[in-house]
C-alpha cells in the first residue's frame, strides 16, 4: 500500500433504507472484484458485512462494517451502513469520512419518501452520491415513475446513466446512456453488448437527452453543442459527470439486482471513473491531502471486539498513518485493514484509506486525531441524535450492579446515540436510545459481550408534587432516654410558591427562641421531609418559614430540631391541598408536510398542546410542529410517529416545565405509584 497514488483510492459508504439490499450489494461488489470467492447470503447469515451476532439474529445491519477490495488497480473501501432509522447515528458518523455514497433503494414509488432524511444529510454535508435502484426484478413501478419520485426528495438534479431493458416483467439488461450501448445481463459474468432494441430507441433517446440537458446546466460548452444539435463526445460527457458528481452537483442513477450481481460492474466503473479521489474530497474539506507532512485522521466508529479490545475505524485525511504513531498522545496499537469482522494487520495507511487502529484508549468516535503538537482545527462531526425511547434496566443478578456502569460506558462508546442515566428521583437506571430495536440490540450486547443479562420495564415518570394552600403548624419533639433528653420545638408557616420557584426556607426568629445553631437542623428536617411529600413524590415550589419555637438548655440539639421540623411538616403538608405535578416537555416534531395533520392529531391525542407549525427552512416539503407534551405520553411517541410517517418523522425534546396533573388522571397515577411500593406510608 505504501507507494500507492492517492488518486487510486475510493472510499464509498453504502446507504439506503432498511432492507433495500445494501449488504447484498456489498457482497456482490466484493465477489465481482474477486475479494471473495463465494458469495454469502443475508438469509444464511454468512455475508462479510453484518457478521455480528446481533445483526445475524435480526438479518439486518445494526452497525457499520468496512470491507476492502481492488478493481482495475483502484483500492476500494466500502462502508456498509445500517438502513434502519434507529441506527442512523452509525450511518451519519461513517458518512462523514466517505468520499462518496451509494444510495441503495427499491423501485417502489411509495417508499421513496423514506430516503428523504438521507438525501438531506448528504446534501447538508455535500457528500457526492449516486443512486442504485436495486431489486429491479421486483419493480412495482416503471423506471421513469421511480425516477420522478426520487427527484422529489433530492435537492440535486437526478441524472439516469442507464435505462432498463425488460422482457415481459423481467429485467434482462440495460442501455448505457453515455455510449448508447445496450447490454444483456448474464449470471456469473459481465453483461454482453447487444443491439439497441428498436422499441426502446425513443425512450432511450428521451432519457439521454434529459441527462445531457441536466449536465448542460453546469457546462456552457455542452449547452452550445446541444443547441447546435451536435452529439457531444463521450469523453466530454464523462468528464462533466466526474466534475459535477465530485462537486456534489448531480446525482447519477444506476439500476440492477444486487443478489444476481446485475448492474454491479457498471456501478464499479462509475465509482472509478466518476467518483472523486480522496485528494478532491480532502481539498474540499480544506485539508492538504499530501502523503507527507502532518497526519490527520478522523474516527468514524469505535468497536469493542468479542475479546474486549478497542478498535477505532478511522479515515486518513492527510499524511500517513504508521503503526505505533502517537495520535493525540495515545500510541496506535496496530493498524488493520478490515473485511467485516476479519482484521488484517498492515504497516501503514495513506490519504483516503479507511482502516482500524487498535488500543486508542480514551479516543471517541468523531474525534480528529493528529501526530503533531500543532493546533489542528477539529474536523466537523455528525451531531449526536437526541434519544427518543427509554427503558429502565436492572441486572438479572443483583451482584452484577457494580459491573453495569463500566459496561454501559463501553456500549455508549460503540454507539453514541445511546445514553444512560440513573434518575435522581426514581433511582432507576434508564437506557435511552432511538427505538425498540436499538435498545434490544444494546441489551443483547450487554448480555453477550459483558455477560450482563438485564430485565427491563417502563421507566417511572418523575412526578413531583406541590401545594395549593398555606398553613401554620407546630411541631414539638421531646424524648427522654435515661440520661440526656432530646427537645426541639418549632412553629412553621408553609406556603405555596409560583411554579418553577423551587424551595425556599426562611426564618423570622427574634430573641433567640430558637438558637442560631439549631436553625440548620430545622431546614434539614424540612428538606428531608420534602423529598417524599404527602402523595409520595418530591415536593417543589414551597416556602417554609420558621417563625417561632422554644428550646431546652440541656436537651436541645440540631438533631432534635430536625425531628421537630419533620413532625411539623408531616402534620402540616396534608392540610395544604397537595397536588401532583408532571413534567412537560417542549417538543419539535419534524415530518413531511403530507403527514403534518397526522402529527398534530398524535400530539393532541396525547394531551399535547400545539404551539404552532411551519415549513422547515432549507428542507422543501417538510414541516416542524412545536408543542408541549406530558412526559408520561412520550414513551411510545416515536413508535407511533414513525408508523404514521413511513418511518421518517422524528422529534426533539427537552424538559420545559412542571404542570398539574389533570384531576381525572391523578387517581390512577397515585394508584400505580403506591402499587409499585413507592407510596408514602
Ligand atoms: N428480489 C431481490 N431481493 C434482493 C435483491 N438484493 C437483495 N435482496 C434481498 O433483500 C433482502 C435485504 O437485503 P439486505 O442486503 O440485507 O438489505 P440491507 O439494505 O443491507 O438491509 P439493512 O442493512 O438491514 O437495512 C435480503 O433478503 C436480500 O436477499 C435483489 O436484487 N432482488
Structural summary, described in words:
The chain is of the alpha+beta class and 681 residues long. The chain has five domains: 274 residues, 3-Layer(aba) Sandwich (Rossmann fold), CATH 3.40.50.300; 75 residues, Translation factors (Elongation Factor Tu (Ef-tu), domain 3, Beta Barrel); 69 residues, Elongation Factor G (Translational Gtpase), domain 3 (Alpha-Beta Plaits, 2-Layer Sandwich); 108 residues, 2-Layer Sandwich (Ribosomal Protein S5, domain 2); 95 residues, Alpha-Beta Plaits (2-Layer Sandwich), CATH 3.30.70. It has a seven-stranded mixed β-sheet with strand order 2-3-1-4-5-11-6, sandwiched between helices. A hairpin with a 2-residue loop joins β15 and β16. It binds guanosine-5'-triphosphate. The site of guanosine-5'-triphosphate has 22 residues, from α1.
Bound molecules: guanosine-5'-triphosphate
User: Separation of termini?
Assistant: 72 Å
Enumerate the spans where pLDDT stays under 50 for 5 or more consecutive residues: 677-681
The rounded Rg comes to 32 Å
CATH architectural category of the largest domain? 3-Layer(aba) Sandwich
Query: In the CATH hierarchy, what is the superfamily of the largest domain?
Result: P-loop containing nucleotide triphosphate hydrolases
The coarse silhouette is elongated
Number of domains: 5
Could you describe the largest sheet, including whether it forms a barrel?
7 strands, mixed
Overall pLDDT: 93
Number of helical elements: 17
What fraction of the residues are assigned to beta strands by DSSP?
25-35%
Order of strands across the main sheet: 2-3-1-4-5-11-6
| Alpha-beta content class | alpha+beta
* Helicity, as a percent range: 25-40%
CATH class call of the largest domain:
Alpha Beta
In CATH, the topology of the largest domain is named Rossmann fold
Q: Number of DSSP strands?
A: 34
Amino acid at each position: 500500500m505504501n507507494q500507492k497514488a492517492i488518486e487510486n483510492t475510493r472510499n464509498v459508504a453504502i446507504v439506503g433504507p432498511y432492507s433495500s439490499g445494501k449488504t447484498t450489494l456489498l457482497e456482490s461488489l466484493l465477489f465481482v472484484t474477486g475479494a471473495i470467492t463465494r458469495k454469502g447470503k443475508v438469509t444464511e447469515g454468512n455475508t462479510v458485512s453484518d457478521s455480528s451476532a446481533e445483526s445475524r439474529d435480526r438479518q439486518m445491519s445494526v452497525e457499520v462494517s468496512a470491507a476492502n477490495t481492488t478493481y482495475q488497480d483502484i483500492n476500494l473501501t466500502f462502508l456498509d451502513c445500517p438502513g434502519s432509522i434507529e441506527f442512523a447515528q452509525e450511518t451519519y458518523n461513517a458518512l462523514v469520512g466517505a468520499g462518496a455514497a451509494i444510495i441503495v433503494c427499491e423501485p417502489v414509488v411509495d417508499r421513496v419518501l423514506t430516503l428523504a432524511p438521507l438525501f438531506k444529510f448528504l446534501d447538508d454535508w455535500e457528500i457526492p452520491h449516486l443512486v442504485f435502484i436495486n431489486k429491479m426484478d421486483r419493480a412495482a413501478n416503471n423506471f421513469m415513475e421511480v425516477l420522478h419520485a426520487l427527484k422529489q426528495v433530492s435537492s440535486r438534479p437526478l441524472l439516469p446513466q442507464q435505462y432498463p431493458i425488460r422482457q415481459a416483467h423481467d429485467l434482462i439488461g440495460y442501455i448505457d446512456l453515455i455510449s448508447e450501448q445496450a447490454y444483456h445481463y448474464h449470471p456469473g459474468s459481465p453483461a454482453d453488448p447487444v443491439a439497441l432494441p428498436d422499441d426502446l430507441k425513443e425512450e432511450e433517446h428521451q432519457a439521454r437527452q434529459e441527462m445531457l440537458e441536466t449536465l448542460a446546466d453546469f457546462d456552457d460548452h455542452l449547452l452550445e453543442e446541444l443547441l447546435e444539435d451536435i452529439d457531444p463526445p463521450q469523453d466530454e460527457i464523462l468528464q462533466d459527470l466526474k466534475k459535477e458528481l465530485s462537486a456534489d452537483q448531480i446525482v447519477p442513477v444506476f439500476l440492477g439486482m444486487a443478489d444476481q450481481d446485475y448492474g454491479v460492474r457498471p456501478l464499479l466503473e462509475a465509482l472509478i471513473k466518476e467518483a472523486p479521489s480522496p485528494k478532491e474530497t480532502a481539498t474540499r474539506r480544506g485539508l492538504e491531502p499530501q502523503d507527507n507532512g502532518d497526519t490527520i485522521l478522523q474516527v468514524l466508529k469505535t468497536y469493542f471486539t468479542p475479546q474486549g479490545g478497542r478498535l477505532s475505524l478511522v479515515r486518513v485525511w492527510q499524511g500517513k498513518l504508521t503503526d505505533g504513531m502517537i495520535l493525540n498522545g495515545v500510541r496506535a496499537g496496530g493498524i488493520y485493514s478490515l473485511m467485516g469482522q476479519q482484521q488484517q494487520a498492515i504497516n501503514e495507511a495513506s490519504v483516503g484509506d479507511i482502516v482500524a487502529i487498535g488500543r486508542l484508549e480514551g479516543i471517541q468516535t468523531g474525534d480528529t486525531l493528529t501526530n503533531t503538537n500543532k493546533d489542528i482545527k477539529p474536523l466537523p462531526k455528525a451531531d449526536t441524535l437526541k434519544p427518543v425511547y427509554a427503558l429502565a434496566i436492572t441486572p438479572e443478578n443483583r451482584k452484577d450492579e457494580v459491573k453495569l456502569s463500566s459496561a454501559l460506558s463501553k456500549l455508549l462508546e460503540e454507539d453514541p446515540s445511546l445514553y444512560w442515566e440513573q434518575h435522581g428521583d426514581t433511582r432507576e437506571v434508564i437506557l435511552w436510545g432511538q427505538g425498540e430495536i436499538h435498545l434490544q440490540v444494546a441489551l443483547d450486547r450487554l448480555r453477550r459481550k459483558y455477560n450482563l443479562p438485564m430485565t427491563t420495564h417502563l421507566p417511572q415518570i418523575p412526578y413531583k408534587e406541590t401545594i395549593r394552600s398555606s398553613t401554620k403548624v407546630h411541631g414539638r419533639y421531646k424524648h427522654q432516654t435515661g440520661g440526656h433528653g432530646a427537645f426541639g420545638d418549632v412553629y412553621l408557616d408553609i406556603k405555596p410558591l409560583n411554579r418553577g420557584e423551587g424551595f425556599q426556607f426562611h426564618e423570622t426568629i427574634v430573641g433567640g427562641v430558637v438558637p442560631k445553631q439549631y436553625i440548620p437542623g430545622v431546614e434539614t428536617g424540612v428538606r428531608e421531609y420534602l423529598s417524599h411529600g404527602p402523595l409520595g413524590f418530591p415536593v417543589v415550589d414551597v416556602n417554609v418559614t420558621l417563625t417561632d419555637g422554644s428550646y431546652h438548655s440541656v436537651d436541645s440539639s440540631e438533631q432534635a430540631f430536625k425531628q421537630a421540623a419533620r413532625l411539623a411538616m408531616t402534620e402540616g403538608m396534608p392540610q395544604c391541598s397537595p397536588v401532583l405535578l408532571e413534567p412537560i416537555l417542549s417538543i419539535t416534531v419534524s415530518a413531511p408536510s403530507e403527514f403534518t395533520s397526522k402529527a398534530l392529531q398524535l400530539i393532541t391525542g396525547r394531551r399535547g398542546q400545539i404551539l404552532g407549525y411551519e415549513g422547515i427552512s432549507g428542507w422543501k416539503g417538510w414541516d416542524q410542529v412545536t408543542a408541549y407534551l406530558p412526559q408520561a405520553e412520550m414513551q411510545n411517541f416515536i413508535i407511533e410517529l414513525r408508523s404514521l410517517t413511513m418511518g421518517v418523522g422524528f422529534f426533539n425534546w427537552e424538559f420545559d416545565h412542571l404542570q398539574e396533573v389533570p384531576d381525572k388522571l391523578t387517581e390512577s397515577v397515585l394508584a400505580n405509584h403506591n402499587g409499585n411500593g413507592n407510596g408514602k406510608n
